[in-house]
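New here. Invent one.

***
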Amino acid sequence: MKSFRDLFTGRSLAILAALLGFLAPFFIEIEGLPEAGHRLLSIFLLAVVLWVTEAVALFATSALVILLLILFLSDVSQDLGWAWGVAEGFGEAGPPAYTVYFNSLASRVLILFLGGFFLAFGAARFGVDRNLAAIMLKPFGVRPSRVLLGLMLITGVLSMWMSNTATTATIMAVVLPIIQRLDAGDRFRVALALGVPFAANIGGMGTPIGTPPNAIVLGALSKINPETGEVVGQCSFLQWMLFAVPIALVLMVAAWLLILLMYPSSKSAVEIDMNVKWATSGKAWIFYATALFTILMWVTGTLHGINSYVVGMFPIAILLVTGVVGAKEFRQLEWDVLWLVAGGIALGIGVSRTGFDAWVVGLIGWEAMAPAVLGGMMCLTALAMSTFISNSAAANLLAPIAVAVAVSAGGSAVTILVFVALGASMAMALPISTPPNAIAYSAGSFSTRQMAATGSMIAIAGLILNYLFLPTLLRMAGVL
């Protein structure tokens, strides 16, 4: 039997803090926040504590979040009048149907994840990961610093043109064999595992198609300003690259140097198998063709019009139907990561449906700020929100608010919206912050604390970089 003292472990204290965070909004009235927002804040605080401390498994926290959202912030609460009932603050439409939260478990983002998992499985099974490692890393040599630089640059460039989620899934299949050859205590294992998702997040900033927040911002710019009757702003594909690529490149170098400083290698050389030998079985050829087809479809989405989420279903269907992935392999896929991401998506739905997002943004007097400060604050807000919920959800929530703030403050909507997009992409402190982070976390080579420490410092560097140079780069690109 445990003693009273044994109960006060780190895990127990974290769970206690999560419970206190959950209960506090029920007893403390916050001005301007409706009852539904108070309930959302309760769930939000509980999720933040559990996700940061890992007192329970991350995917278990996601399952709990979805359940609490259904019980407290859906139409199910109508049947719980004897307990707490429906919260005020949903408006005439009332609380959302409980299926809205269940649908997060079938989100298009999860399908894209699953497609990446299928490709990663095939790459490992048929040795594609080792071959890609040999081909792509050979020019960088075997010094640990150069190997990491090569992986990050390759990941970043690919993420500019295709899904950063799919890129991470592919490159992690290349990285895992290298990590497995390193000693268990070698801190460079962490460097390799963190470098890939961070590079994917940063590289995604470079083009309008690199990451969903970029596309969301461009969509917001194309909307009509009701006061002027004109579009909010304009930014071409090339103009986006002219201001975003320099930011991404400098931040990539900063991230590389920081990771090397925090997680140095204990060896002077990293063992990489440079021999290339392709499997030639029938199933291997099916996988090669499927992987090549899928990647080409991702890269050429603007030509054929099929979005990356739908493309993610192709490898799933093809590899299952052809037997390349059987029942045994199917059960071994990283389903816990999918649940982790689903929790973030569901929380984002709750944030928007309860007015919690508008309350958070309304805490700051945006109109009194100078344009540069206004952009920087929106960037910080996007980064903070994207740390705990999907960056796509955060961009969706903030984009219309950013447009309204720009119009009311007389600032440039383009500038403020770009700050939102880049801020959302810089949120990389937690596994649930971005899909690349979640995929890398599934490899099990680093802890949440290590990701939080490194990702937070990179985010701070990105904030400073954007604040100092983004307005100038926007003018040089001809956007302003």
User: Anything to note?
Assistant: The first helix runs from residue 10 to 27. The two ends are 68 Å apart (CA to CA). The mean pLDDT is 81.
